[in-house]
Amino acid sequence: MATSAVARDVVFALRQKIAKIEGTLPERLAAPSDGQPVAGLLVRRNGFASARDFFLPTGVDRLDEVLGGGLPKAALTEIHGTETRNAGAAAGLAFCLVSRMLRERSRPRDLVLWVGTTEVFREAGFPYAPGLDRFFGIPAESLLFAEAPKPTDVLWIAEEAARIEEIAAIVVELRGNPRIVDLTATRRLHRRAQDSGRPVFLLRQSAEPEPTAAPVRLVVSPAPATLRQTLLGPLVGSIGAPTFAVEIGKSRTALPGSFILEWNPDAHTLAERSPENRVAVVSPSRGRTRPPAPPGAVLAFKPATGQAVGDQPPREQHPAHRRPRRAG
Predict the structure, then answer these.
(1) pLDDT tens digit string along 2-21?
(2) How many whole angstroms separate alpha carbon 86 and alpha carbon 244?
(3) Sign (positive/negative) of CA torsion 265, 119, 203, 155?
(4) Is the pLDDT of residue 218 over 90?
(5) Of residues 62 and 321, which shows the higher confidence score?
(6) pLDDT recorded at residue 302
(7) How confident is the model at residue 213 (pLDDT cuts 50, 70, 90)?
(8) Per-residue pLDDT, 290
(9) How does pLDDT run across 26-35, given as a tens digit for each residue?
(10) For the chain, what is the HEC assignment?
(11) Counting C-beta atoms within 10 Å of the first and last residue's C-beta, which end of the chain has fewer, N or C?
């Protein structure tokens, strides 16, 4: 029985490699647990698929299909913001995924732990707790913040918190590329996520991609929002729902791809949007008109009209030059 299970795993892995070489991904693969077709890749240990190893669908059909069913629940997932100014977008996508996780679990006492260093909280700020319930359906009392002085302490807190059953998801927010966040540290986080059956999101702000044990890495940046939709059509001069530009930077089963995702704060769902949509323009204040463009060139400093302080007059105008030289 064990030999047969191992053989099925080997065939399953070979099919994945062949699909990557050909540039396509199989839509449905046979799971070695029960032999029934199932979308995506199941995490296995000792040749058997665990009942806790499922996928978290993002709700975007094309993205879920590319990822083989969605993001792995019991695993470490990286979310990268390549620049500091993209911190809001990276954190926003993390909240979108956490919101979908809580809706699937539908347990009223579930908690979310957000742990980061003092440096990253000082640079990027804390999430606005009263707006979490309105935009993401995450009650403020369900969100726990832990601030640690060093990345080593952050990783330790995340590993210990993964053992707590009441915590539904953990977000580890770090800035830059600390040396301590290497393959060994991320393997421990990934293993704790597998053992606990809940996701751990590694939120990297202003970081460069580097080798980690996370099966999936998403690179996130802000995307232009569309106009707000009303019953009468698009509202001119408005800004619509939050929008993210997401790239699959790394995946064990998916090919690289780019997506424009829009978050619906009312339905708490993600949807794919085409990049050709219009960009929202901020309107002027109520009761005011747009100021006319100033004529001519705009200079940082006004040109001097008179003689500047410290300037010397020309040589021929200096009084000393108009007097005859003294004879020796």
Answers:
(1) 555 556 666 666 666 665 55
(2) 10
(3) negative
(4) yes
(5) 62
(6) 57
(7) very high
(8) 57
(9) 433 434 444 4
(10) CHHHHHHHHHHHHHHHHHHHHHCCCCCCEECCCCCCEECCCCCEECCEECCCCCEECCCCHHHHHHCCCCEECCCEEEEEECCHHHHHHHHHHHHHHHHHHHHHHCCCCCEEEEEEEHHHHHHHCCCCHHHHHHHHCCCHHHEEEEEECCHHHHHHHHHHHCCCCCEEEEEEEEECCCCCCCHHHHHHHHHHHHHHCCCEEEEEECCCCCCCCCCEEEEEEECCCCCCEECCEECCCCCCCCEEEEEEEEECCCCCCEEEEEEECCCCEEEECCCCCCCCCCCCCCCCCCCCCCCCCCCCCCCCCCCCCCCCCCHHHCHHHHCCCCCC
(11) C
Q: Which long-range contacts (CB under 8 A, 24 or more apart) does 54-57 make?
A: 56/97, 56/100, 56/101, 56/104, 56/199, 57/100
Given a contact cutoff of 8 angstroms between Cβ atoms, the answer to whether 80 and 214 are in contact is no
